[in-house]
Design brief:
Layout: H1 3-6, E1 10-13, E2 17-25, H2 34-43, H3 53-65, E3 76-84, H4 85-91, E4 98-101, E5 121-123, E6 131-134, H5 137-163, H6 168-171, E7 181-189, H7 190-200, H8 207-224, H9 226-237
Antiparallel strand pairs: 1-2, 2-3, 3-7, 4-7, 5-6
Bound molecules: flavin-adenine dinucleotide (FAD).
């Protein structure tokens, strides 16, 4: 796929979330592919540039294998993302991203701005942080009904506080915290994005962030940087046994 077609592409995630690619460096109009931007940056060490596809790809794999990481910082992705706060709580721990978020002090929340999961996952037996399997359908449906009631009550209290003249920054104390959807603009370079993807696509990452990481990788990163993605899978996701 041409990278130009990726800009503006939006992928829907969870029940009301999405991710959209806003911009990329190198910009598709520049006629320089992301993979080549990485190769050319590496060759500045010798004041050279592209040497043809075979040698360029070989160099990129060499860079990844030997963790010569700075050339991968020459490619950047900017996304607009709508995700529940439980996802953001984990995403913001990645300090190498630039971020700007919707302000709940400025914009009032809407009645349906809350995450409703499809299924209820069970507590994992062996990993205290993780989940595995599903709660049965009947109990799951009851839990979903209770969650919807909880959202309705929380939102009604939020509206009451606003109607009483309370500021938005305080009225939001009534909202169910982890599940409210926020929209952010985020930017990251390819090197730090690969670090994020390795951690957040892993099976022990929480599902609500894993789906965003997987969408970034499969819908944007891999089509934009096919050589880098191949090398990333070979040396970072599935490294050879040492
Ligand atoms: C499965 C899982 C479970 C987790 N559980 C918890 C938990 O229970 N509690 C909790 O608090 N967090 C938890 N985290 C978050 C985790 O501890 C990291 O904060 C998060 O994954 C970001 O990783 P990072 O610091 O490597 O990434 P980034 O912040 O993006 O940094 C990338 C790299 O840059 C370097 N770097 C960045 N800033 C600094 C700095 N100030 N000093 C030195 N080096 C720096 C480091 O090499 C770092 O690896 C969990 C993460 C995962 C994936």
């Amino acid at each position: 796929m041409m990278t130009g077609a990726l800009i503006g592409k939006r992928v829907n995630l969870l029940d009301k979330g999405w991710i959209e690619l806003l911009d990329m460096l190198p910009h598709p109009d520049s006629n320089l592919s992301g993979d080549l931007a990485i190769v050319n940056a590496a060759r500045v060490s010798f004041l050279g540039e592209t040497k043809g596809e075979e040698k360029d790809k070989k160099l990129l794999f060499y860079l990844m294998r030997h963790r010569h990481t700075s050339p991968f910082e020459m490619v950047e992705f900017k996304f607009r993302v709508r995700a529940p706060l439980v996802t953001w709580w984990q995403w913001v721990r990645h300090r190498t991203w630039s971020m700007n978020a919707q302000s709940g002090r400025y914009t009032a929340f809407e009645e349906n701005d809350f995450y409703v999961p499809d299924i209820w996952r069970r507590q994992a037996a062996s990993n205290k942080q993780a989940s595995e399997g599903e709660i049965g359908q009947e109990t799951g449906d009851q839990l979903t009904q209770k969650l919807l009631q909880h959202y309705e009550q929380g939102y009604a209290l939020y509206r009451q506080a606003l109607d009483a003249g309370v500021s938005k920054e305080m009225a939001r104390l009534f909202l169910p915290g982890f599940s409210v959807y926020y929209t952010w603009v985020v930017k990251v370079d390819a090197h730090n994005l690969m670090h994020f993807l390795k951690l957040r696509m892993a099976s022990d990452a929480q599902y609500e962030i894993r789906v965003y990481a997987q969408a970034i990788y499969h819908e944007f990163f891999k089509p934009a940087l096919p050589w880098t993605a191949e090398a990333f899978e070979q040396y970072m996701l599935n490294p050879p046994a040492s």
